[in-house]
Amino acid sequence: MTTINFEPLFDYTSLALILAPLTVMVLIGFYVRKRGSFLRLTALVALGLALTNPVVVDETREPLKSTVAVIIDRSQSQELGSRKQDTDEALKALTKRLEALPQFDVRVVQAGAPDEQNDGNETKLFSSLSNSLRDVPPSRIGGAILLSDGQVHDIPADLEALGFNAPVNALISGQPDEFDRRIAFNKAPRFGISGKPLQMSFTVIDQGEASAQNNIANVKIRINGEEVSEQQAHVGEETSLTLELPHKGTNIIELSTDVLDGEVTPVNNQAVAVVDAIRENLRVLLVSGEPHNGERTWRNLLKSDTAVDLVHFTILRPPEKQDGTPIEELSLIAFPTRELFVDKVNDFDLIIFDRYQHLDVLPLLYYDFIAQYVENGGALLVAAGPEYADYSSIARTPLYSVLPALPTGEVTEKAYYPRLTDAGKRHPVTRGLEGSDQEPPQWSRWFRTIDISTPQGEVVMSGADNKPLLVLSRVGEGRVGTLLSDQGWLWARGFEGGGPYAPLYRRIAHWLMQEPDLAEEALTAKGDARSLKITRQTMNDKTDKAVVTTPSGKEVELDLKETQPGLFETVMNTKEVGLYQIKNGDYETLAHVGPVDAPEFTDIISTTDKLSPLAQLSGGSVLRLHNQAQSAVTVPEITIAKAGQTFTSNNTITLRETADTQLKSINRLPLFSGFLSLAALLMIFASLWYREGR
Question: Transmembrane region positions (predicted)?
Answer without folding.
Answer: 12-31, 38-57, 671-690
